[in-house]
Design a protein that fits this description.
The complex is a heterodimer. Chain A is of the alpha+beta class. Chain A has five helices and five strands. By secondary structure, chain B is α+β, with helices and mostly antiparallel strands. Chain B is globular and about 85 Å long. Classes of the chains: A alpha+beta, B alpha+beta.
């Protein structure tokens, strides 16, 4: 069977890629498209490090076969900034110290982005709930919560409670 | 020139210099590296916990598609290990496997999939040996020996030391409290799985890129195990995706891919699976401990007698140091006038234990702080007051000759007592609600290096170029703690620049001066001091040139805001770039160095090398818990913590270290456990990891993390850079005992072991309801045949830091082990076997 070939949009760019049919979206992103910003921590869907947005919704790229996203729009951490300008979440992560080792950061960023797209004034409880599938071993999460709240503020939502 | 009163960088909330790359996904972790013609490596691992290797058949695998080479133990005759006294590992096993997961062969193939397929075709004939499963098993069964070295049988190391007449002190005490505690093993669970790429660079030299906290020690291990002159090897520590101690050993896979790259002439990469990371481990030792503490009626401690039994797993790792650490710091928090410590580490056929955040000290800290709570309750004294009345004083020596400098422990306790409402609220929160308090201390760097030498522990080199650029070079490894930012901050402060003006190059053994590594909370203090020295030397060179140009005395010049100017007439000055140009014109190419070596310790008895530090941090914490009366479900609802940090260098990063430590400490307190189980006999009876996945090895998520009230106590320590002490490890230590003490306050029962689960609380309540001791925990401590203790008179007894019954020790200072034998180049590297 020949290797599959799919067309999709990655971070706004149209992409055609051919790859081994067994490969996950995570593997195709990292190995075939060289977008290594998306990380792996378990490859079993347990840690959230591999989260990307598929058609705007957070998805664990280690659990998705790349063939499943034919025609979809995929956003990775590399696609958050617009031109040279950081996304408010990226800026807030820097400001609030929400990245220590940075390995979980891409997964947190895209998951938080999906939350704020859906709910610009998310409160602490909603933020915590939305990020419960992302493991961070460094920060204790509090500075991540603060960063998401700060970003929400910058993006024009009311100051969250 | 900057004084503590007018610091411009230090103490200010700053964005870390490596943060931008992290939020853009541009940070290069080891597994993000890719090179042309790169091959992939998969290790074939033992499925049996203890066995003799009869044969390894590689023919079928070698014939498989894509397989380029297969390595076995025959390629690696030379052992290595992190400690000179425990050179007990081979990159691939030779003759014997000692745990499930021990690597026996390496398959090198064109793709990762082909390496995995090839590995399935390697046939390994193993003849099982009796398995040593736990410490009691190891003490009862000296045979078969897991290693042919160590104290006796399967005992790796026994240590015994006595500071003053402890038996007499306990005999004279009004009350003696004796408790047995158990602290479970747990693992680092850094989110990044270990990855390494080995390659031969265009100049013919070996290069290894790796997720390691200790590039210098990996460098040494490679030189030794591969018999290559060390100057022909380069190790680069990639930005680590979390370490916590789990990337501090040189690892077998690092040496294997280096060798494979040399054999194939192509880059070779390995990235471990999460399951393999669980088996690599080197995490927290499970420790059983017996603690006897004698007190007067008013609670004053007259002496403490501590025994610890460590389950070391299959290899030495840092274990000898870990064993000493279980007894090193009890005296640093409280004035304990007489003290005895005896520790024993055994080998078992399980993943090896090593250093995890707090290295060897959280376990006895748990016992000590829970026991103090019991003493306070028994004597009717407030647990905070019991501690406050007998803190080890600042600027003093402990009974075991640790030199304490500054101590903010009193202020820490007072802060959390005040902020938590401890006096008003403890014991009055109603059934199922409770508060617990605990304190701790930790090192700001170990006083001695891992191998004996007389060299600096950290070196920093600065390059000034005529663009005004300053580049700082240091061997320290960035593991997420922010060491690159600390380096930039030190240099920027001295030179009047911002951190974002500075470039840093770190963790590269061919480009940077040695720093021993990111462990024992040593980097900020040691690298920081070296950086200040290098920067001040550079500043003085530049100042002399500017002074000549402006016709001013050099000591009137201020370096601030990117300028160098007259303190008395700030308009008179030059830009920093012009100042560097003046400096280069006067002195030639500008570069400076700085070095740091800790002060010598007065602890000169055997084992006294573990515990001394240039400065100790202190922490106090109060936690509040809810325990559901029906299910015993335990929830931590709030944490108050105060940490004596000496000086805060960057409040954002410092708070992140405290909250991260609280988080990890709560994980250990509530749920984390590196548990092993035995498969049934028809499945080989192997000792396997109970839950080698992140789903089953529970760690706290966002939903378990309580609010944390963090306070810093700042009393600058003269040994710290701008007075700073550590913050990355100490704040973890009080969490498990504080939770245990809060559970007692909530429901009146004791859980004397970690993790403190609902099941254990329920069991303790059940015991109480049936008229028995209301506790859950280990019943007894085994009888161990201890060696005669080193007898050391305490400072109060007029001792001199040596043991009266030890032979004087020979100086080992020059045995660096990193030199070439005569006749180099190409000569063999001498091993370190001290």
């Amino acid at each position: 069977m020949p290797d599959p070939r799919i067309r999709l949009t990655v971070n706004g760019d149209p992409v055609e890629v051919t790859f081994g049919g067994h490969k996950t979206l995570l593997e195709v992103l990292r190995e075939d498209l060289r977008l290594t910003g998306t990380k792996h921590g378990c490859e079993l869907g347990e840690c959230g490090a591999c989260a990307v947005l598929v058609d705007g919704k957070p998805a664990l790229s280690c659990l998705i076969l790349a063939q499943e996203v034919d025609g979809a729009a995929v956003t990775t951490v590399e696609g958050l900034a617009s031109d040279a300008r950081l996304h408010p979440l990226q800026d807030a992560f820097l400001e609030c110290g929400a990245s220590q080792c940075g390995y979980c950061t891409p997964g947190f960023l895209v998951t938080a982005r999906a939350l704020l797209d859906r709910k610009p004034k998310a409160c602490r409880g909603e933020i915590s709930e939305a990020l419960a599938g992302n493991i961070c071993r460094c920060t204790g999460y509090i500075q991540i919560f603060e960063a998401v709240e700060r970003a929400a503020e910058k993006m024009g939502g009311e100051p969250p409670r | 020139m900057s004084t503590p009163d007018n610091l411009r960088v230090i103490g200010k909330a700053r964005r870390r210099i490596d943060g931008r790359a992290m939020v853009l996904g541009q940070t290069q972790f080891a597994d993000d590296l890719s090179f042309p013609r790169m091959l992939h490596c998969r290790l074939v691992r033992s499925t049996v916990p203890h066995a003799t290797i009869r044969a390894i058949h590689t023919g079928r695998a070698l014939a498989a598609k894509g397989v380029k080479a297969i390595l076995t133990g025959d390629h690696f005759p030379i052992p290595y290990g992190i400690l000179p006294v425990s050179q007990d590992e081979h990159p691939l096993c030779r003759g014997r496997v000692r745990m499930v997961g021990d690597p026996v062969a390496a398959v090198i193939a064109t793709t990762e999939e082909e390496a995995i397929e090839g590995a399935l075709l390697v046939e390994v004939e193993l003849e099982p040996l009796r398995t040593i499963s736990d410490p009691l098993d190891a003490l009862d069964h000296p045979e078969p020996r897991i290693h042919d070295y160590g104290d006796v049988g399967n005992v790796h190391k026994k240590v015994a030391m006595e500071f003053g007449e402890i038996d007499a002190a306990l005999a004279g005490a009004d009350r003696v409290f004796e408790d047995v505690f158990f602290y479970a093993g747990n693992t680092h669970l850094a989110l990044e799985q270990h990855a390494t790429v080995g390659l031969v660079e265009p100049d013919g030299k070996l290069c290894v890129w790796s997720s390691t906290q200790t590039p210098h020690y990996v460098h040494r291990a490679l030189a030794k195990a591969l018999e290559i002159p060390p100057h022909l090897i380069r190790v680069v520590a990639c930005h680590n995706g979390g370490g916590f101690g789990g990337k501090s050993d040189p690892f077998n896979h690092e040496i294997v891919v280096a060798k494979a790259a040399m054999l194939t002439g192509r880059p070779v990469k390995i990235c471990l699976t999460r399951e393999e990371v669980f088996y690599c481990h080197r995490g927290r030792h499970p420790v059983l401990m017996r603690m006897k503490t004698g007190v007067k009626k008013d609670g004053t401690i007259v002496g403490m007698d501590l025994e610890t039994l460590l389950d070391g797993g299959a290899y030495g790792s840092y274990g000898v140091a870990s064993t000493f650490y279980t007894g090193a710091l009890q005296t640093v928090t409280y004035a304990i006038p007489k003290y005895r410590f005896r520790g024993c580490r055994v080998f078992t056929n399980k993943p090896p234990c090593g250093p995890k955040r707090g290295h060897g000290t959280p376990q006895p800290r748990f016992g000590q702080e829970v026991q103090l709570d019991k003493i306070a309750v028994s004597l009717g004294i407030d647990p905070a007051d019991l501690r406050l009345k007998q803190l080890a004083p600042a600027n003093s020596f402990t009974a075991n000759w640790m030199r304490i400098g500054t101590s903010g422990l009193r202020a820490c306790i007072e802060s959390v007592v005040e902020r938590s409402g401890w006096r008003e609220r403890r014991g009055r929160l109603g059934p199922g609600h409770g508060m617990g308090l605990a304190v701790s201390t930790y090192l700001s760097g170990a006083g001695l290096p891992i191998y004996w030498n007389d060299l600096p522990h950290s070196g920093v080199q600065l390059q000034f170029d005529r663009s005004g650029g300053v580049t700082a070079f240091c061997g320290a490894a960035e593991i997420g703690q922010g060491s690159d930012d600390v380096l930039a901050a030190m240099v920027a402060e001295v030179l009047g620049l911002t951190t974002h003006d500075i470039r840093v190059v770190t963790g590269d053994t061919s480009m940077t001066p040695v720093d021993l590594g990111s462990y024992s909370s040593r980097v900020t203090l040691m690298m920081g001091n070296a950086a200040i020295q290098a920067a001040e030397r550079g500043r003085d060179l530049i100042a002399s040139a500017v002074a000549r140009k402006l016709d001013l005395p050099a000591d009137r010049l201020v370096f601030a805001g990117g300028r160098v100017f007259d303190a008395q007439d700030p308009d008179k000055g030059v830009s920093f770039q012009d100042a560097v140009i003046l400096g280069e014109a006067l002195h030639g190419t500008l570069g400076t160095t700085g070095s740091y070596k800790p002060p010598p310790s007065p602890a000169r008895y055997k084992g006294g090398g573990v515990g001394p530090s240039p400065a100790y941090s202190f922490t106090a914490a109060v936690v509040e818990v809810d325990v559901d009366p029906r299910t015993c479900w335990l929830e931590v609802t709030k944490v108050w913590i105060a940490h004596d940090i000496g000086r805060v260098l960057n409040p954002i990063l410092a708070r992140g270290q405290v909250e991260g430590s609280v988080y990890m400490g709560l994980g250990e307190a509530l749920m984390e456990e590196q548990a092993m189980r035995r498969l049934p006999a028809n499945l080989s009876g192997a000792l396997v990891h109970k839950m080698p996945s992140m789903l089953e090895y529970k760690s706290p998520t966002t939903l378990e993390m309580p609010p944390v009230d963090t306070v810093f106590i700042e009393d600058p320590d003269p040994n710290g850079p701008y007075g700073a002490k550590e913050v990355g490890q100490g704040p973890l230590l009080p969490m498990p005992p504080a939770v245990a003490n809060a559970v007692f306050d909530a429901v009146g029962v004791r859980v004397d072991e970690t993790p403190i689960t609902p099941e254990k609380i329920a069991k303790a309540i059940w015991e109480r309801d049936h008229g028995r001791d209301p506790r859950c925990g280990p019943a007894s401590f085994p009888s161990i045949d201890w060696p005669e203790a080193s007898k050391v008179r305490t400072p109060a007894e007029g001792g001199d830091g040596t043991a009266s019954n030890e032979k004087p020790r020979k100086s080992k200072l020059l045995a660096s082990g990193f030199r070439l034998a005569p006749g180099s180049p190409g000569a063999k590297v001498e091993g370190v076997q001290s």
